[in-house]
Amino acid sequence: MDLMNIGTTKETTDVTLYNPVNSEILTNEDRSEMTITVHGPYSKKYKTISHAQQNRRLMKAQRTGGKLNLTAEEIEASALDLLVKCVSGWNITLSGEQPDCTEAKVREVFEALPWVREQVDAALGDAQAFLDK
């Protein structure tokens, strides 16, 4: 077996949304599946955003003599920001409309519907989702 034949990484994956109550796939009026396209941990975009966040933390630590005091709220906000910025598109219905995929709208959806955020976040942790087979 050759490791190079197992799978190469890909930049994005489409996360299919499921109803958190009954686990059914959510569909739009045209019967297409509701999906959110997200850049994964192997992608250049993800790494750029993650490195920028880490660099800000390192600079903060340097300014405070090596002590980095982060609150739970700061850590949660940072994780949300990373997730929001990694979304590159979607096919969803929201309040009867198919909204444009902007950072502001993604943030709004993730804050109003935490189960959507959780599903996208879970996909980021699934290495298989970001491998071409």
What can you see in these coordinates?
This protein has 133 residues and is an alpha+beta fold. The chain has one domain (8-132). Helices cover 42% and strands 14% of the residues. It contains four helices and five strands; from the N terminus they run βββααβααβ. The strands form two sheets. A three-stranded antiparallel beta sheet has the order 2-3-4. Strands 1-5 form a two-stranded antiparallel ribbon. The protein is globular. The mean pLDDT is 91.
Distance between the termini: 15 Å
Order of helices and strands: EEEHHEHHE
Report the sheet-strand fraction: 5-15%
Structural class assignment: alpha+beta
Choose one word for the global shape. Answer: globular
pLDDT < 50 stretches: none
Let me know the largest β-sheet. Answer: 3 strands, antiparallel
Count of strand segments: 5
Strand order of the largest sheet: 2-3-4
- Count of distinct structural domains: 1
Query: Quick check: average pLDDT?
Result: 91
Task: Summarize this entry quickly.
With 133 residues, this protein is α+β, with helices and mostly antiparallel strands. Helix content is 42%, strand content 14%.
Characteristic terms for this protein:
14% strand; 4 helices; alpha+beta; two-stranded antiparallel ribbon; 42% helix
Write the layout of secondary structure elements.
Elements: E1 8-9, E2 12-16, E3 35-39, H1 44-63, H2 72-86, E4 87-91, H3 103-112, H4 114-124, E5 131-132
Antiparallel strand pairs: 1-5, 2-3, 3-4
